[in-house]
Design brief:
It is a single chain. The chain is built from 14 helices and twelve strands. It is of the alpha/beta class. The strands form two sheets. It has a six-stranded parallel β-sheet, with helices on both faces. Strands 9-8-7-10-11-12 form a six-stranded parallel β-sheet, sandwiched between helices. The radius of gyration is 20 Å and the shape is globular.
Length: 371
């Protein structure tokens, strides 16, 4: 029965951006959809893909990449770009005639596409503010909330990489048609354990307060092991952030970060906000013990396998890392448990779950389809 459903969808139009984890997610999903004979028209926004990103996409045979520099809806003064990006997406739909529109952002869910629309909610400004600032954004974000709400309500279906993120979207934007969460994945072949060395690693957008890497850097000089952090210091608006205490590795390629994770004994991300967390998944596949922020989404993903700490508690973070440094058996036990858990999140499982949703939408949504 499932195999028959797979044949209903042959091509999707998927939006992505080049700035965060959505790019990695999009390529991982596209690669996993290839054995199911689903082509992916990938429409990128934010900034033009860099050379490494273009190379990554070119190696996936079922991707046709269309590039743009349209601002994303969470950027400063984006709405003219969002409108023009919508016109571009409608033109791409006419040009490529997809069976389904897979949106990894919100506003364009309100467009009158011919094909059914699926929105995947990877993060949002209002849930970010709630978790990081503990209050709503200022009034300048009212337009953002209106546009996101419109997109969510008009889309045929909404999902997210965790039930926790779906719940946040409903809390901040009201009711909409939603399905079950579909967890993200990473390929185990790209993230393998290596000979472990005595250091702690973290990775992510260093300028993003949600990652809370500044707390790790603050306690780093007091730890017995060195702390290394990888990622961008410059935010999309050109502002820089710097940390004292931790060793900055810069922005690493996928192969480089996998190597560092392979050798790291501990991966720490005391996040205040993380709707799924691709970097902990990669680190767990590489055999790192995980020390993570104790938030609902990370609890959902890792259950009782990781070591959790209150995100804003320096002392508990220090104590947890010190304990793992001092007790190798405990460290190895946690590393073993999180790797076993990480192996559940396979690209094959992710692709089959998305394919099932795609086909249900195409089969049951009353829209005008291509001849």
């Amino acid at each position: 029965m499932i195999q028959k459903l797979y044949n209903n969808v042959h091509r999707i139009l998927m939006t992505t951006d080049t700035i965060g984890g959505v790019w990695t997610y999009s390529l991982e999903l596209a690669r996993a959809l290839e054995p199911l004979n689903i082509e992916v028209v990938l429409a990128s926004m934010g900034t033009l893909p860099d050379n490494e990103q273009k190379l990554q996409a070119s190696k996936i045979s079922n991707i046709s990449l269309f590039e743009s520099t349209y601002k994303l809806e969470w950027m400063e003064d984006p709405w003219l770009d969002v409108f023009e990006a919508g016109e571009w997406l409608k033109d791409l739909e006419v040009l490529t005639q997809p069976d389904l529109i897979h949106l990894n952002e919100y506003s364009h869910g309100a467009l009158d596409f011919q094909a059914p629309t699926l929105i995947v909610g990877h993060s949002c400004v209002y849930s970010w503010y709630s978790a990081v600032k503990h209050h709503e954004p200022h009034m300048a974000w009212n337009r953002y909330k209106q546009e996101v709400s419109k997109g969510l309500k008009k889309a045929d279906l909404v999902t997210a990489p965790t039930e926790a993120m779906l719940s946040e979207l409903k809390q901040h934007y009201g009711n909409f048609n939603s399905g079950h969460a579909i967890y993200n994945s990473r390929s185990v072949n790209e993230f393998l354990p290596k000979r472990k060395e005595p250091f702690i690693l973290s990775a992510g957008r260093l300028w993003d307060e949600a990652k809370n890497i500044s707390n790790l850097a603050y306690i780093a000089p007091k730890l017995k092991w060195p702390v290394y952090v990888a990622g961008e210091k410059e935010d999309p608006d050109g502002r820089f952030i710097d940390f004292q205490g931790a060793n900055w590795l810069g922005r690493l390629s996928g192969r480089e970060i996998a190597k560092w994770m392979g050798h790291a004994s501990i991966f720490a991300l005391p996040a205040k906000y993380e709707p799924f967390g691709l970097s902990p998944l990669e680190a767990a596949l590489c055999g790192c013990a995980l020390v993570l922020g104790d938030i609902p989404s990370l609890r959902e993903v890792w259950e009782d396998t990781a070591c959790f700490v209150p995100p804003e508690d320096y002392q508990t973070l220090f104590d947890a890392l010190t304990e793992l440094i001092d007790y190798p058996a405990l460290r190895m036990e946690i590393a073993k448990k999180v790797r076993k858990r990480a192996l559940y999140f396979t690209p094959k499982r992710m692709a089959e779950n998305y394919s099932s949703v795609y086909n249900q939408l195409v089969s049951h949504t009353k829209k005008v389809f291509w001849n």
